[in-house]
Amino acid sequence: MAASQFAVAKSPDAKRSALLGALARQALVAEAELTPKPGLVDRRGSGAHTDLSLDVMRRSALAIEPFISRMALQSANERPSARLRATLAGIGRAAESAMLRVTKGSNTHKGAIWTLGLLAASAAATQYTCGAFDIARTAAVIASFDDEQTSTFISHGQIVVKKFGVTGARGEAMQGFPHIVTVGLPMLRARRDDLVPESIARLDALLSIMAELDDTCLLYRGGETALHEAKNGAAAVIRAGGTGTACGQERLRALDRRLLELGVSPGGSADLFAGALFLDAVDRNQPEIQPDESMLEKEDETVRI
Q1: Is 225 helix (H, G, I), strand (E, B) or coil?
Q2: What SS3 class is residue 269?
Q3: Residue 171 burial (10 A CB sphere; 0-12, 13-18, 19+)
Q4: Number of folded domains in the chain?
Q5: For residue 42, what are the β-bridge partners?
Q6: What is the DSSP letter of 138?
Q7: Which positions ≥6 away from 112 have C-beta within 8 Å?
Q8: Nearest residue to 115 via CA among 239, 277, 3
Q9: Is residue 98 part of a domain?
Q10: Cα(198)–Cα(184) distance, rounded to whole angstroms?
């Protein structure tokens, strides 16, 4: 069911939930289309992936949208509780199944379903006037409850958390998504205040998250070496003035080459970046997340970076 079908409902909660689902889809598409991203799927190609493409990412985002809307609707005006956590988990598992159907088994957005599902649910559960920090704090409370129906299947993220002692996706949520609200979102807005093109603001926000996050996708595929290379490389881009400078672009190219050599992709950072775009839109009462027109206009130049 598409967001437009939800919108025909009369209740304000249903309309709000449809909007949140649409914003989640738009955030995922905006993340996928942002170019050039190191190691990730973008307009240039599949990055370090062999089973993904931009078209697959777009179809996955569309398949996930109605489930995010459903999470929001189930959470409307609800207080965080074990019951609500179980309900959201059930919808999340259904979203994963829908994702795998449209991608023919590829894991495009499992982490994003967790992140955006929690944030959309929290946005619906809080007052409409609440900002990004309030929504993230509500998400932390919801995430703190255990999902008693968790499958016996151990995810890649859980393996990495146990092996390397890092926070992981649930830990990030339980801490109130610090890499979104204190890293990615402030960088996005600071760059906009500097009047840089939106593509530069978004790339720098993504890289700021990469520089700080113990990304479990990197650790699973490439171990500590991959994580070290990604964090240091992203930090070097930011230190050079960001992706809007010649020096920053040179370091971005070097980081991209290195991640492709290692065959790794910072998928956890990408999920949190999508979360930052989502929270930015909700916080500012935007009806949609606009595509990056500057990237579309300069696509022929940008994809060669």
Answers
A1: helix
A2: helix
A3: middle
A4: 1
A5: 45
A6: H
A7: 28, 64, 270, 271, 274, 275
A8: 277
A9: yes
A10: 14
Q: Is residue 155 part of a domain?
A: no
**φ, ψ at 287 (rounded to 5°):** -80, -15
Give the C-alpha separation, 57 to 40, whole Å: 11
Say how far apart CA 247 and CA 251 lie, in whole Å: 6
Q: Which residues 6+ apart lie within 8 Å of 61 measured at CB?
A: 24, 25, 28, 29, 32, 109
Q: Is 46 within the bounds of a domain? A: yes
Residue 63 neighbours by CB under 8 Å, 6+ apart: 95, 98, 99, 101, 102
- Our CA dihedral for 35, 38, 44, 46, rounded to 10 degrees, sits at -130
Q: Which domain, by its residues, includes 224?
A: 12-146+163-291
User: For residue 187, which of 169, 209, 168, 172 has the smallest C-alpha distance?
Assistant: 209
Judge whether 185 and 135 are in contact, CB under 8 Å. Answer: no
Closest CA to 48 of 230, 220, 228, 264: 264
pLDDT in tens, the chain (305 residues): 444 444 444 699 999 999 999 999 999 999 999 999 999 999 999 999 999 999 999 999 999 999 999 999 999 989 999 999 999 999 999 999 999 999 999 999 999 999 999 999 999 998 655 799 999 999 999 999 998 665 545 676 777 777 777 888 999 999 999 999 999 999 999 999 999 999 999 999 999 999 999 999 999 999 999 999 999 999 999 999 999 999 999 999 999 999 999 999 999 999 999 999 999 999 999 999 987 765 444 444 443 44
104: number of Cβ within 10 Å: 8
Helices 82-103 and 54-75 pack at an angle, to 10 degrees, of 160
Distance between CA 278 and CA 34 in Å, rounded?
15
What is the pTM for the complete model shown? 0.91
Task: Read off the tokens for 85.
Answer: 């956590």
**Domain presence at residue 17:** yes
Is it true that the peptide bond before 287 is cis, omega within 30 degrees of 0? no
